Amino acid sequence: MKQWLADVWEGFWTVLVGMRITWRHLFVKKATLHYPEERWVLPPKSRMRLFMKYEDCIGCGQCARACPVQCIYIKSEKRAPAAPPIFAANGQPIKLDVHVFDIDMSLCCYCNLCTYPCPTDCIYMTPEFEFATTDLTQHLYHFAKQGATFITEDPKKKTAAAAPSATPPPAPPATPAGA
User: Fold this and answer.
1) What's the pLDDT tens digit per position in 54-84?
2) pLDDT (tens digit, 9 = 90+) per residue, 99-127?
3) What's phi and psi for 5, nearest 5 deg?
4) pLDDT of residue 163
5) Beta-carbon count within 10 A of 60 CB
6) d(C-alpha 156, C-alpha 125), whole Å
7) Rounded Cα–Cα distance for residues 51 and 112 (Å)
8) Which domains are seen in the chain, by residue range?
9) 161-173 exposure pattern, b = at least 16 Cβ within 10 A, e = fewer
């Protein structure tokens, strides 16, 4: 009988300890986020989904070599010598035609290592993170486009030509009064 009363008291005591924790958290401000309607503010430089500006890609393949999980597939070949010159947005000439540029986001480890070696900054991480699907083939993104519009004039030459006309010509040096 004595053991039974000790067990009942121990059970009652553990319920009181648990209820003390419950009562303490009952009157605290809630930290629950009602996700679809409310969203946390993402920190800057969050690594989410990869995106690639096809018109700026020079086809060097440095992003594919830097990827530790090999989720970037790129196929390019030299442009014909008679083809008109095209340029990336930073003024770098594009000497390769990119026929395949695919990123398999189901393999991506979101390390952001592929964005650093790109000389034209055409591949970058976007803050978009809601791309869950039940079909893994929907995570394979094809960025190569057939009818893409490229820059045909060198942007560096445009800015260099516009810069001197914007500044006034220098004033001639003043002549000494006694001369």
Assistant:
1) 999 999 999 999 999 999 999 999 999 898 9
2) 999 999 999 999 999 999 999 999 999 88
3) -65, -35
4) 58
5) 19
6) 26
7) 11
8) 49-150 (3.30.70.3270)
9) eeeeeeeeeeeee
